[in-house]
Structure formats: C-alpha cells, structure tokens
Amino acid sequence: MQHRRGRGLAPINLDRATAEGRTCSFGGCTRAVSSRGFCTGHYQQQSKGQPLTPLRKKRGQGAVQDMVRRGIIECRRCGEHKPVSEYSKLNASGVARPYCKPCNAEHVRLNNYKVTKEFIDLLLRFQRGNCAVCGDAHTGGRAMAVDHDHACCPGQGSCGNCVRGLVCDTCNRFGLGWYEGLRPELRTFDLLNKYLADPPVKRLRAELALLDE
Fold first, then answer.
1. Which of 45, 77, 85, 178 could staple 103 via S-S, CB 3.0–4.6 A?
2. What is the pTM of this model?
C-alpha cells in the first residue's frame, strides 16, 4: 500500500491491542482483537445488532470437498449434517450454499429485513399461520414472504421498522406489487386496503408494547 501510493517504506504501526496479544473479549473466543475489544467476527455481530454467539471454526477446502463427495454437508449455522438436497444452490455451477434451507431463510431475513427467526415465528402464530392478505393457510412448503413498505425502503431490503406482515407468494408478487403501483383513486379493493391500513406487524408490536408496560 505504501509503495503503490509513492510513499517511502516505513514500519507499520500495528494496532496496540493486537500488538499486545490481546484476544477477543467474548468469553471463550481466542481470536485476536480487531476492533473495540472484539475479533472481526464478533465485532460484525455487534455492529449488526445481533446477539453475540460463538463463532464456528473455518472448514478447510478439503473438508468441504469430502462432505460434498459423501453427499452430506454440515450447515454453518445450525451445525447439523444434512443431505445436499437440503441446501439451495449458490450459483449456476451447482455449488451448495453454506446454510441449509431453513437456516438460509433465517439468514436472509435477518440481513435483508432485520427481523429474527423468533419474531417471524411469533408473527406467523399471530397471523394464525395464514397469509396476512388472502387468508390462505400456510401449509409448511415454501416459506411465506416478508412484506415491507417500499415507500420507506425501496428494493428488496428493509430497515426492519417498515415490515408489515407475512404473505403468500401469489399475494406478494401479483397482488401487493401490482396494487401499490396503481394511482390512489384506483385502489378500491377492500381486502388489500384493510391490510395496508392496519398490517399485522403494527398490531403485534402494539400488543407487545402493552405487555412491556
């Protein structure tokens, strides 16, 4: 870096914590301190507002290839050994994702929508296992989509505050997406208007707030 910027080469001033050989302040973690008393992994957990949990050991490439040959892969999140069929494909080359399908769904929801598995499970029970728009029962196949207000957060991600409810794939792709694109005077469907005016997440959070008082 010094050479590329045309600077004279000089000794690098190492981070004092690392130079002193300090380890991560999370109990049981022996990795070197990276920032604010934590290693890189635990600092990332803290900065994302996630609960601090033990980090899994990195797997060597040989171990991964051996698991793929045997058709059984260890999920990097839950630690369970599951068949390759229990993992979604990472890309067109057929490489399996590091998380099994349930854990990958949880990973995506936490990163994209800032909601935990516990909150999703609670919300699903609050909705009595049904789509928040059409009311169809969730049969346990494909997970229902997390709907959020695109006026707050355009695109796929959400800040977490604008999450509205769990909806089936049909309502998510062909109902809400189309309906919210209409001019206000054309939005005359009572079912969708009721959902948008009083989404289940709003009601659930209101009830949880009362319990905390």
1. 77
2. 0.62
